[in-house]
Amino acid sequence: xxxxxxxxxxxxxxxxxxxxxxxxxxxxxxxxxxxxxxxxxxxxxxxxxxxxxxxxxxxxxxxxxxxxxxxxxxxxxxxxxxxxxxxxxxxxxxxxxxxxxxxxxxxxxxxxxxxxxxxxxxxxxxxxxxxxxxxxxxxxxxxxxxxxxxxxxxxxxxxxxxxxxxxxxxxxxxxxxxxxxxxxxxxxxxxxxxxxxxxxxxxxxxxxxxxxxxxxxxxxxxxxxxxxxxxxxxxxxxxxxxxxxxxxxxxxxxxxxxxxxxxxxxxxxxxxxxxxxxxxxxxxxxxxxxxxxxxxxxxxxxxxxxxxxxxxxxxxxxxxxxxxxxxxxxxxxxxxxxxxxxxxxxxxxxxxxxxxxxxxxxxxxxxxxxxxxxxxxxxxxxxxxxxxxxxxxxxx
Length: 396
Fold this sequence. Notes:
By secondary structure, this protein is an alpha+beta fold. The chain is built from five helices and 23 strands.
């Protein structure tokens, strides 16, 4: 009866027990038989080290575009998501009133130009002003008359009264020339003021069209046709999404390893398994006092706009100088119950070593502790090996 019960218990054991028994039997067979394996030696090589940091993607440029003048919105040629170039029209405001003001200001300026004898964009020359030219001619004529009067009075051919009259006329015309010149100078200053008013009026006319400050994408359009806007009213928001910025926070102990121009690789949850590359553009000159960390900004190319501002990114920054590391093929490492291990081949036996792994470099993996340079490790049939198993080295 006892034997039957024992047999029944063995037959109806749990699947886990059966698996343990099978693994034990396999291990025993591996230890007793000879298993052919390939080997590779642990080698020291310089590798690039990376600093793991996190950050958030932001737009390269983002602007809330506002109206420069007050008026009624008459056209909105863009919608949310519209791609625009620098200077593209976002919103148009009624231009009737400001257009009339611009015409009036321009007419006032041209009127003064005509009075001063300025035409076709010629420079101001005071002697070409008609009033100045006329006053100069009168002064020169009076001066000539006075000089003749002086000669006549010396010969006693002209009365003193006529001589005094001639002298007074010469002095009066000379003073009139000075007055006319001063008036022309004042008119020229008035012309400069009129031109400034005309330029302001032209700017107001141009401001009836609200334009994109740079090429990018319209994030929001905040007004519609018929809305009345005042100066400073936000009408649209534009952002540039290629490239993108990512602000990263680097711990204090890694500051010496970070510099502008270093390579950055980053991943985002939206595209698992994909890696995006960028360059460190800015390194803060000071630490954050609250976290004792350094702010670093990198730029990431985004030609297809797959990355979006606001994405949370996990980034790796390449350190300034490479470091030597002990590498073995990744196939040589076996993980059991969360513990990585390798099998060191010595003669016709293997020794199981618990190791600490580090960075992965292509098809190799770094061994931080548990192995020495030059030691040979098994790279094939690793899952069948146990400590002390007999092996033969397979020639590749």
